[in-house]
Amino acid sequence: MSITVAPGLQGRTVSRPSLTASTIDAMFALLSTHFTGADRATFEVDLAEKNLVILLEDDDGVLRGFSTLVTYDTTAAGESVRVVYSGDTIVDRAWWGSSALARTWIQTVQSLRPQDGRELYWLLLTSGFRTYRFLPVFFREFYPCCDAAEAVRRADRTEVRQLADAIARERFGSRYDADTGIVRFDRPYVLAGDLLDVPDGKTADPHVRYFLERNPGFVAGDELVCLTRIDADNLTPAGRRMARRCVVEAGSLVMEAGSLDPA
Length: 263
Description:
Helix content: 25-40%
Oligomer: single chain
Order of helices and strands: EEHEHEEEHEHHHEEEHEH
Strand content: 15-25%
Structural class: alpha+beta
Number of helices: 8
Strand order of the largest sheet: 1-2-4-5-6-7-11-9-8
Radius of gyration: 18 Å
């Protein structure tokens, strides 16, 4: 289990089998306030496929957010890589300003890197521009991306797209449309109420504008397939700062635990 702390909010990563019934109930309740069409049976099936869960709790221990993860190895594109796939991810809107999710997530995935030198990739499905914006904030290169500078790396971009296609086909089968890069589930979650709205001025952000162009069906729950390589050399300055803070926090936790050992 990993733990990180942000003002007023604590993030911890636990194994999915260790979740209590009351925590699962709280997770679904939180999901239901942010999406229409949230179905308990679908939620539980999706949760059962994951092996890790990030829990975000306030100072009173109340669940304020969560993210489910599964890690697996694949040779879908002809070479062995490790994939971290994010499932349901929710943060109570009252806590959107907290960095607890980002810090706990980065700390968690850093511990999942293969020890044999293979690459680690993050597979993300998103039906909202807010989640998509996480990519350019923390990663230099990712797919799909609007950055014109990617044009000078056309071969690399094609290779990443082929990897994204192969992984998505393997995981989602016929629900994945390779022409658009979109996954359409039989029972999609649709962002609730005003979460579907794009605030005035947001389309001035090229990444938001690009997401809306690539996934116009987000209003019906369409999910855009995104892929990025998780490595120190692919982090933005903001990503590197977050990673350094995670290392410091992890070291502090080790020291704290060590102080409890008998002399």
